[in-house]
Specification:
The protein has no helices and 15 strands. By secondary structure, the chain is mainly β.
Length: 180
Amino acid sequence: AKRNTNTLLTLEADADGIADGVSEATPIGSIPDETNGMAAANNETSLICARYGTAIFAEISNVDGELITEYITNLDGEQLELRHGDMASGCADDNPIEECAYQLYYTHEGPGESGYALWEVTLNNDGTASYNERFENLGGAHIALHPNGTDLFIVSGSNVRTFDLNTNTVSNDVNIATAG
């Protein structure tokens, strides 16, 4: 997605096998307003977006950005406003989509809070999204799920930390600006 334009882009790798330039970016559609965090859905054709200032996780097509469905976030029966955050997802078991043990995570900084909580999110069949808070304060962070589903990588500034999803502990704080 392209910042400030709501444009969904597809990237094509160049001759060196890496999509590292604007020339490889092709606009394919739009994303919902105020998208703040995006991750792959539990299928091969859609993405999940967190929408800042709303209570909505939106599922959109990865082909053209069209809205598929919306999930309303709830906390104790009340809608919960999404704010700054990031998303990560994956099969978490190195299996193909058909056998996927799908996991979806969102980092959430609520109104008046100074750190990000890590949520494990469940998109329910009734159009709601529920969550389990896994860690109270990650600091400011972007996240990525390891394919094995046991580790979540947390990028904050030039540091990368590892969050163990089995023990709910953070380890391996590495400064990537100075690392070997």
